[in-house]
Each structure stands twice: as C-alpha cells, then as structure tokens.
Write a structure and sequence with these properties.
Blueprint: H1 3-28, H2 34-46, H3 54-97, H4 116-148
Helix pairs in contact: 1-2, 1-3, 1-4, 2-3, 3-4
Length: about 160
C-alpha cells in the first residue's frame, strides 16, 4: 500500500468515525444521553490524530456534548429544586394541619402551594431539557451536513 493510499484510508476511517459520532449525538436525545457520552469518548480519543477537517468535527462534537451536558445538569438542578420545594410545602402543610392528616397519604393536591417559584422551577427544568435535546439534534445535523460537504466546523471557506 502506498503512502497516499494509507493517508486516504486514515482519512476515510476518521471521517466515518466523525459521522458515527454525529449519529450517536442525534440518538442521545432518544436514549437519555448515553450515546452522547460514547460519542464524547470517541471524539476525545480521535481528535489529536485526525486529519483536517475531521479534527474540527471532533472538537465540535466535544463542545456539543459539554453544552448539552451543562444544560441538562442545570435542568436537573431545577427539577430537584422543584421536588424540594414541593416537599417543603408538604412539610408546612403537615405542620399546619397536623401529622395525623397524612394517614393513608390522602393529601389533596389543591392544598399544596403551587406558587410562582415552583412554576418557574418546573418550567425552567422542562425548557432546559428541551433546549439540551434540541441542541444535540441541531448540532448533529449541522455537523453531518458540513462533514458530508467535506467542510470543517468553524472555519470559513477560502476564496
């Protein structure tokens, strides 16, 4: 095999891995983010040895993973804060009505305080989860299109 053939084969392998990573990032929306973790590991291992423009794609995939991860993490914190808010509200209700009112867990939902803080936390959690998934889908589609066009990510075309 010639040097040119070896370089072409390495480029093809790198390109196929980058395309596989975009598919994994896309699938992460439907499988609770686990494929995105696999894609990030592949991207980290291939980024330094990949030829251009594939290197820019691996870097972009790593960035896409971390943006989605941070958005999902903040959404998780907002959801946890909403649960804590509900528990505190139930505690306040129990303190007011007495603990005997909780026999058989017959708490009327209308008695739990649904205030602006709770609504903001729930809406924030839902919105950030949606944005995280939308980011993964949009980034993977954009990256796959650029990869299919043999263009790097973040690089302007030379005239």
């Amino acid at each position: 095999m010639t040097v040119e053939g070896s370089a072409a084969r390495a480029r093809e392998t790198s390109r196929n891995l980058a395309l596989l990573n975009y598919a994994l990032l896309f699938a992460a929306f439907f499988f609770a983010g686990v494929p995105a973790l696999v894609a990030a590991v592949i991207a980290y291992t291939q980024r330094d040895s990949a030829p251009e423009p594939d290197r820019s794609h691996f870097t972009f995939q790593i960035r896409a993973f971390w943006v989605a991860f941070v958005l999902a993490l903040i959404a998780g914190f907002a959801g946890l804060a909403a649960v804590i808010h509900i528990l505190v509200s139930l505690y306040d209700l129990a303190s007011t009505l007495g603990w005997d009112g909780f026999d058989g867990m017959e708490v009327v939902v209308g008695q739990v305080a649904i205030d602006a803080t709770l609504l903001a936390l729930v809406v924030s959690a839902i919105l950030l989860t949606f944005l995280s998934g939308l980011w993964l889908i949009a980034a993977s589609i954009l990256g796959a299109i650029k990869l299919a066009s043999d263009q790097g990510i973040g690089k302007s075309r030379e005239p």
